[in-house]
## 1
Amino acid sequence: MAVYIEKSGKLVMKVNNDHSEVMLKLNTYHGTIATVSFYDILNNEKMVHYGGKIQVGTGKQLKGKTIVFVGASGNPDGGQIKIEHLFLENNIAELEYTFPNHYTGSPAVEPQDEQPTYIFTVTFI
Amino acid sequence: MKRFQPLFIIICLCFGSALYSQSFEDLNAPSFPAATIINSDANEISRPKSLKGFEAVLLNNFVDSTNNILVPNNFALEFNPYTLSKRKNFNYEDYINNYKGLKTLSFSLAANTTYKINDSTNIEAIGVGARMFILNGLPASFDSTKYQRLVAQYKKLTSYNSSLILRATAFIATKPEATIATDELKNALKKEGDQEELLNLIDLIFEDIDATINKNEIVEVLDTSIKTKSRNKTLEAFKTYLDKVKNERYGLIWEINGAVGIANAATITSPQQGIWSTFTYRPIKKDENGDNVPSPFEFTNLIRYTNINNDFIKGIDPYANAINLEQNFDIGLQTALDLDQFSLELEYIYRINSEKNTDKLLLNVGYNITNDILVSFNFGKDYHELYDTSKENLIAGLSVDFGFGTISKKSITDLFNNDLN
């Protein structure tokens, strides 16, 4: 199966406060197991597992930057894959991206793909 | 036998309830009650895991090309609402200790165009059933341990997959050339502080990759290699043990099932209904390593109610003689002991019928004198037929079987039970 690459420039998050923490919260549904990895602004590799939350950076660090996120997933129970990425600023979700529901990239998601890997970018302004 | 019947009933009631049957006569729980109620023998059961899949299965089977509703032949569908539910951030280890009650509730649907009224009359019928485990024991500890390891391993491999694709993506972004040397890519994926397991995985996924690789293909080639060399195998093992943890459980197990048949002849009505309850005790014991393993002993108690709508059947076939089956309330027990050389299986069902009570008894005892010689004693008595005494069965036999290789005690008792039925 292919790696699903979301359209670049699709996901933009407006950061309201330079001092606020921007977090990524990862939720999955229907038995999906997933992990998302990314490099933060200092080029440290970070990773969040489903059900977890991790700091992406501060508002000041992120403004004007684009970060690549890579997700790997699977559903041993055979159910549908559903992974919700919530980008929070001061614990308020400012951007929500759910794979594959919001996916518009290429190639199209194969419904029978049991372990999709996907890439998306978020631009912070 | 008559004087022992009350004793059997008391024993059964003390141990709870249980209902069994792939046909209505056996002391076996219907794993698919919707099919049992209409005597369907579908080879494949659809188990949709999403609402879209559920909708697609129904549309594909119950609606024809001109959008008319039809009844498919030998169709079977089962769905578990819990599997279809949201299950946010589901913890797979919950299946070990908490897999019972509503989580196990499943609904089944079966359809058959050859529901048999008599030898020459078949009609279309649909069966609707439900099944739930109120008590569901626990998996054997060696299965639980293996399962927990697989859950952890699969999560770890998923995180490695994500990490390596991220590293590859970052590496590609620094390379202007169209073709990349595989060794350079491999070294770039290894980072200081990586766990040995991850480093070994990187070596493994590069084993079959060519010396150079097109930059545009790197991500896909790596992702495919990670899955084929590690994640797929772990996923399959995970699924196998997930199935074991859900279905091979020990201790106290109380299952309730129910099903209704719906048939369309002149009018739509229900020709048959059934409710089953089985209470099973499958003990576990400690083996020489201290692990919990299944004990050779098993006890099952059955309570079953079945009803056949004779008015409906006689409306189609006035000569049908179904009164013997009209309303049955069965109480039964089964106990089995399977040791290395000795096996014993006892099954007794007492049937309270609206016309006349009857019972059924099976006893199979086997002893392997050597691997090649089995001595077995079998005794069986079937239900008393009200109107056709020629159908009564009473069989007893003592046999010595010689064979090459180990003789299966089960194969001998199965042969005997088939004869009786």
## 2
Amino acid sequence: MARACVVGAGMTHFGVHDKPLEELFAEAALSAIHDAGVDGDEIDSLYFGNAMGGITENDTHLAPKLASYLGLQGIPCQRFEDACATSSNAFKHAVQSVEAGVHDVVLVGGAERCTPETGLDTKEMTRTFASASHRTYEQPLGLTFPGVFALLTKRHMYEYGTTEEQLAEVAVKNHDHGRYNPRAHFGGQVDVAEVLDSPIVADPFHLMDCCPFSDGASAVIVVSDELAESFRGEPVDVTGVGHRTDTVPIADKNAPVETTAAKEAATEAYEQAGISADNIDFAEVHDCFTGAEVIAIEALGLVPEGEGGPVTKRGETHLSGEMPVNPSGGLKAKGHPIGATGTAQIVELTEQLRGEVGERQVPDATKAVAHNLGGDTATAVVTVMEAGQ
Amino acid sequence: MNGDRPSVAEDVRGVPDYDDWRELLEAGILMGSQCGSCGQTTATPHRRCIECGSEHLNGTELPTTGEVYSETTINVTPTGFDEPYQIAIIDLDGTRLTARIAGTVEIADRVRFSDTITTNGCPAPVFEPIE
């Protein structure tokens, strides 16, 4: 039973954009609106995600600003901020609102600019991202986000024997997938040696273990199950959305390496959908760093604990493997405009489950999961979507 | 031991907060927060227990030696930080704390609390390897 349906999906190219957030978001929103065949006056509400605009562009109160540019002023509009899980949380609230009958048709999405087009260089943007670490107990140490995931990954390597070569295989695979995604920031054939030869950002991560700074926007149209057939866009069912949090700072997490919030969010999402990890045909996961994908596929129950590295090395998570992970290229190759990432995963699930993505299509996919982390894994949103009946 | 040296028992009145933590840290004491109901201990303050939700939290002195739980060296540093540095999560007899490292350590190495660094007026602990 669907909690809600996505009837329209769209996103910009992820990469470098020299244009205001409102224009970036409008491009994604119009693409979703046209895909759905929704008239402007049918949209009841805007659920919008942007994580850092207040810091990066001195731009806040974005929901009514962006709505105004789209001629949607007047309806209830709200903005979400949960670090990298920002627009997944907007999506969760959109699903709840149509499920509860509060709204019939909701525009939900996110936009963010993270490249030097903002006027911020790598050191400034590294500092901005670190605003999601603990203000008094982590930021004074100089902890960065590559550093956060490096701490988790190093412990994973210690406990399970995961190797730098296995981590590099994640980057190789996701760049390969990115070749088939015309909206991806990067994509191409790279090998393990190139990853391992790239400069170290925070060990064990080399530059090519890290997702890029990207600009971009994504959007979907969420409607109630009953109304889904009345739109032109082919509906895809949202059957589960799990949302959990964990303790901040990292040192206070009971089990930092297992990403407890993601495990519990996955359990919740699978229960709502009435399925298990065994039923999943492919996954879009939060590979902000290569080690994060290894940990993510374990947290989702797609592979046994500690097996994420070897499974990747064997090619099982490649598009041609048994359990394709990040067919879009993931954050690693597709790009990671923070507030746009969550709904971009929903865009990929929607288009894959409709069977319309061409060369990167997962054959016969009917059930898929999206895994989006915020901050130091203290926020996790896991979404299950299924092809319409 | 200096007679003016503060102590957790004498200095922390009521539920420990950031001001207590930083004052004691700068005086060479790692103050944790211990739940009076379930005993859960964290190395930095919370207002309610993260395990059982009790409001009855007390300051407690943590051991100043421990073992490296995980570590990384930050090469690409944020604005305000320059040369690469190592950060580690330290396990202090079951309570974890994130700290800077003076020197170089690996996971499972023994370390001791040795110093503090201050960034924008906010102090943070520094640990060093025990030879």
